[in-house]
Amino acid sequence: MARLLVVDNEPDICALIARYLVRAGHEVICAHDSATALAEVALHGPPDAAVLDVDMPAVDGFELLERLRADHPDLAALFLTVLWHGNVLARIAGLDAAYVAKPFTPGALCSAVDELLARRGGASRQSETAR
């Protein structure tokens, strides 16, 4: 189980993503904007990974990840996006992040999260402290 930060400005999409990830055994912290996401991380500590929408008003997912990594440089990230043209994919790769194209299936989302966590050595902090 991992602790995941999910940020999407569409509340229904955020809830759907959270539902899929909770069913897969993860703990999820949801936020609908960057300010709330940053406040949640400040309050609860860094997650094991962040699942971020690219296209959000005010502060997009790329800038949010840069802000999160300013304090937590090893934060793993997965972007969910309908914007998968070359510039977006290059930017995701430049941030050493993964992505899943919207629309996605629960299986594709959960597999991508599992791969991301495995690549980053993703056991959750809660599991490690419970040992």
Structural description of this entry:
It contains six helices and five strands, in the order βαβαβαβαβαα. By secondary structure, it is α/β, with parallel strands linked by helices. It has a five-stranded parallel beta sheet, sandwiched between helices. The chain is globular, with a radius of gyration of 13 Å.
Note the topology.
Elements: E1 3-7, H1 11-23, E2 27-31, H2 34-44, E3 49-53, H3 61-71, E4 76-81, H4 86-94, E5 98-101, H5 106-119, H6 125-130
Parallel strand pairs: 1-2, 1-3, 3-4, 4-5
Sum up the structure in keywords.
131 residues; five-stranded parallel sheet; 6 helices; 5 strands; 49% helix
Gist?
The chain has 131 residues and is an alpha/beta fold. Helices cover 49% and strands 19% of the residues. The relative contact order is 0.18.
- Uncertain segments are 122-131
Give the helix level as a range of percent. Answer: 40-55%
Provide the succession of SSEs.
EHEHEHEHEHH
Radius of gyration: 13 Å
Distance between the termini: 14 Å
Q: Provide the structure class.
A: alpha/beta
Q: So how many helices?
A: 6
Number of strands: 5
Strand content range: 15-25%
Principal-axis shape equals: globular
Strand order of the largest sheet: 2-1-3-4-5
Task: Summarize model confidence as the mean pLDDT.
Answer: 91
Main sheet, how many strands, which sense, barrel? Answer: 5 strands, parallel
